[in-house]
Design brief:
2 domains; 361 residues; alpha/beta; Rossmann fold; 14 helices; four-stranded parallel sheet; binds glycine
């Protein structure tokens, strides 16, 4: 299958997103042609490196590229400043300098850590993204958000720093656990609701092929998500306005995720958050009931939960909403759908309606 290419247009910081099944084997060739760096350090977690480290390393070495591989334990618990410090020390010990580059090889945690490290190591060196989960392929590897968690909250320390290229191999999704695939699909549904009614319809009609990991369907799905993300980021790289639409489902979703002490996976919380935002939009008078039903139906049809688990503490969620990064001056901003394919950002929401939605009413 031929490569599909999407571009993120940010003037001199523009970069390509290459999408193709089996791409992993060809990345070395492309990097060698583009001469981005003298030497590369692949940063990956232990699981991804066990599954695919050798394939990527072979691809680089056979293209004459000199590379090292550093791994860290997989999972969100690695996404902190101590991991950054030990990776930076390792890079320094290996003699990496400003002529070298990093490769983020893994899911969102790996991309966020590696991008952050690239943005501050020697005051900034280039990096490329090779995302291996659906969520990182359609969202976190594109757009330049990097960062780590601190005890006070997730992603509270980080930078905006764009990669030089993104390489998406759809074949690696074959080994992704089903739950993680579904979690990524919540973000995919998000793009349909916020930006593209036709894409929403495509998702309604192609569920079976998507779960069967049909390559052409996956490639066009990922490409459409990347195109939408690119269009949004090109207009608002630093989330001053439009980019906030990407937070649809994440306001109540994050509160649900935090109240579950992160036992609920991110995409599942986003699925719940999207349904909650749709119900809030109906109460707010900006969305037709039928459209909210269509959002709930599609979320449910992808095997994602639509209601906030009853055992989760509602007052904790209310407190979290007020502390959230997206809250400005004590005002909670919600991204509310106005129709499938269009949203508005507003703080004009009745708190009684929020309480009803938190009660799954
Ligand atoms: N994941 C949302 C964003 O990149 O803005």
């Amino acid at each position: 299958m031929k490569e599909t290419l999407v571009t993120v247009g940010l003037d001199e910081r523009s970069y390509p997103i290459h999408i193709q099944p089996g791409l992993l084997q060809d990345i070395g060739k492309d990097l060698a042609e583009n001469k981005l760096a003298n030497r590369y350090c692949i940063i990956s977690d232990d699981q991804v490196s066990r599954l695919y480290g050798e394939v990527l390393m072979d691809s680089l070495l056979s293209a004459g590229i000199s590379a090292e591989l550093i791994t860290f334990p997989s999972g969100e618990k690695s996404k902190h400043l101590q991991t950054m410090a030990s990776l930076a020390s390792e890079l320094a010990r290996l003699g990496f300098d400003r002529k070298d580059a990093l490769i983020a090889f893994g899911g969102g945690v790996t991309g966020d850590i590696t991008g952050f490290l690239a943005s501050i190591y020697m005051r900034g060196i280039p990096f490329v993204q090779i995302p291996t989960t659906l969520l990182s392929q359609v969202d976190s590897s594109v757009g330049g958000k990097t960062g780590v968690d601190i005890p006070e909250g997730k992603n509270l320390v980080g930078t905006f720093y764009q990669p030089k290229a993104v390489y998406i191999d759809t074949e690696v999704l074959q080994t992704l656990p089903l739950e993680e695939l579904q979690g990524g699909l919540a973000e995919v549904i998000k793009y349909g609701v916020i930006y593209d009614k036709d894409f929403f319809t495509f998702l309604e009609n192609n569920r079976q092929k998507i779960f069967a990991l049909d390559e052409p369907v996956l490639v066009s799905l990922i490409a459409r998500c990347c195109e939408i993300k690119a269009e949004v980021v090109e207009q608002d790289e630093r989330e001053g306005g439009l980019r906030r639409i990407l937070n649809f489902g994440h306001t109540i979703g994050h509160a649900v995720e935090a109240a579950s002490e992160f036992s609920l996976i991110h995409g599942f919380a986003v699925g719940i958050g999207m349904c909650a935002a749709a119900r809030l939009a109906v109460k707010n008078g900006c969305l037709a009931e039928q459209a909210a039903d269509a959002i709930e139906r599609i979320v449910q049809s992808y095997g994602l939960p639509i209601n906030i688990p009853t055992e989760l503490d509602r007052s904790e969620m209310r407190a979290f909403l007020l502390r959230d990064k997206k809250t400005v001056g004590g005002k909670v901003f919600y991204v509310l759908p106005e129709a499938i394919g269009r949203v508005r950002i507003t703080d004009q929401v009745d708190s009684a309606h929020v309480d009803q939605v938190l009660a799954n009413n």
